Amino acid sequence: MKLVIAIIQPHRLDHVKQELYNVEVNLITVSEVLGHGRQKGITEVYRGAKETGNLLRKIRLEIAVNDSFLNKTVKAIIKGAKTGATGDGKIFVMDLQECIRIRTEETGSVAIG
Prior knowledge:
There is one protein chain. This protein has 113 residues and is α+β, with helices and mostly antiparallel strands. The protein has a single domain (2-112), classed as Alpha-Beta Plaits (2-Layer Sandwich), CATH 3.30.70. 23% of the residues lie in helices and 36% in strands. The chain is built from three helices and six strands, in the order E-H-E-E-E-E-H-E-H. The protein has helices at residues 13-22, 70-81, 109-112, and strands at residues 2-8, 29-35, 42-46, 49-53, 56-65, 89-95. The strands form two sheets. It has a four-stranded antiparallel sheet with strand order 2-5-1-6, covered by helices on one side. Helix 1 (13-22) runs antiparallel to helix 2.
């Protein structure tokens, strides 16, 4: 079992969700977060002075998948989120030690769905 965490641009969320649905990945958690990457936020000129907004609005997706779904999940996120521009985001894949469905108390890969 793996936990896939993706940080993407907010305007790409609908595209990513559709790509995930296309590969039968339907269980996702979505959060609005703030952050920045190498670009270190936006630099704007306001009344002649440069101002840097250090934190940009991003979307964080968390998706627990069985190992057999990992590659198609990652590919779907890339396909939906990629624009080719700086700031498209990142994907992190971590081992998931355990998953427990609260309603039935099922554990492991069965609980993921």
